């Protein structure tokens, strides 16, 4: 399959093309940014498509991160994914940012539990805890940092996500220390693509995944249709 992956949920604007038969990304670009995703994304996708040498009609599906994350950033990525999918007549699939963060760790089949954590501000985090095989220990939720630290009862974890360092700095002194801390500002776009290739379009729709209500008010159509970008000449 050829998968167009998109991520604008956190502090990056990223896209990539995964060729599953080749087992690798054939094109990708990621720009670090806290804001400005709306202006950056469609030109970035056009550059990635040109780098890949394929057209939108050759894609098999579009994968996009659905949250939790920046409300504005999520709207940008989901709108683009949904619009491209509609225009190219291909399915769009969604995956959470917490899942995208955890995926590379789970792929290693280690025994340690994996805590994915995203900064929710106000001394809170979005987090989930899974076993090394990917099965759930604590399902995604928003909670005070102290509650997330209670997950130390599952043993020494692998911490991932943009709040991994926050948890590591406040890790209970009497608990087994984390085996590793990967404090990435955004998920790896390659793993957004790989998870997107694995999920079912029926079970993983491309729609926002909120763990708390957004601060901003939604317009009548929160995810307006997007047109296909024009590849740079």
Task: Walk me through what this model shows.
This protein has 233 residues and is of the alpha/beta class. The chain is built from six helices and ten strands; from the N terminus they run βββαβαβαβββαβαβα. Strand 1 and strand 2 form a beta hairpin. Helix 1 runs parallel beside helix 2 (71-88) and helix 3 (97-106) packs across helix 6 (189-198). The longest helix has 18 residues, at 71-88. It is globular.
Question: How large is the count of helical segments?
Answer: 6
How would you spell out the order of helices and strands?
A: EEEHEHEHEEEHEHEH
Shape: globular
List low-pLDDT spans: 216-233
By helix and strand content, what is the structural category? alpha/beta
What helical percentage do the residues reach?
A: 25-40%
The counted number of beta strands is 10
């Amino acid at each position: 399959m050829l998968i167009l992956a998109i991520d604008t949920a956190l502090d990056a604007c990223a896209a990539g093309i995964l060729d599953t038969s080749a087992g690798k990304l054939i094109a990708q670009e990621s720009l670090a940014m806290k804001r400005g995703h709306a202006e950056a994304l469609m030109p970035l996708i056009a550059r990635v498509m040109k780098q890949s040498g394929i057209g939108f009609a050759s894609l098999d599906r579009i994968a996009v991160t659905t949250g939790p994350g920046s409300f504005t950033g999520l709207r940008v990525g989901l709108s683009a994914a949904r619009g491209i999918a509609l225009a190219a007549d291909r399915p769009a699939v969604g995956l959470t940012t917490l899942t995208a963060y955890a995926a590379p760790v789970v792929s290693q089949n280690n025994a340690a539990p994996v805590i994915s954590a995203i900064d929710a501000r106000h001394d809170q985090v979005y987090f989930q805890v899974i076993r090394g095989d990917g099965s759930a220990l604590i399902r995604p939720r928003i909670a005070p940092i102290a509650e997330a630290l209670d997950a130390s009862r599952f043993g020494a974890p692998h911490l991932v996500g943009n709040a991994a360092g926050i948890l590591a700095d406040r890790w209970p002194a009497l608990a087994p220390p984390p085996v590793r801390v990967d404090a990435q500002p955004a998920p790896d776009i390659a793993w957004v693509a790989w998870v997107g290739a694995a999920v079912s379009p029926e079970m993983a729709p491309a729609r926002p995944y909120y763990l708390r209500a957004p601060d901003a008010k939604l317009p009548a159509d929160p995810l307006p249709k997007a047109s296909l970008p024009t590849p740079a000449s």
